[in-house]
Amino acid sequence: MAEAVREARAVRGRPRPRGGSRTSNTPQRSFGPLVWALPPVAALALFFLYPLALVVQQSFQPDSGGTSLRPYADVFASEAFRNALWTTVWLAPASTVGCLVLGFLLALVIAFVPFPGAKGVARFIDVYLSFPSFLITLALLFIYGTTGIIGSFQFLTTPWGVLLAEVTYFTPFVMRPLLAAFSQVDTAQLEAASSLGARAPRIVRRVILPEALPALAAGGSLVLVLCLNEFGIVLFTGAKGVTTLPMLVYSKAILESDYPGACVVAVVNVLISVGLYGLYRVVSRRAGA
Question: What is the structure's pLDDT at 30?
Answer without folding.
Answer: 63
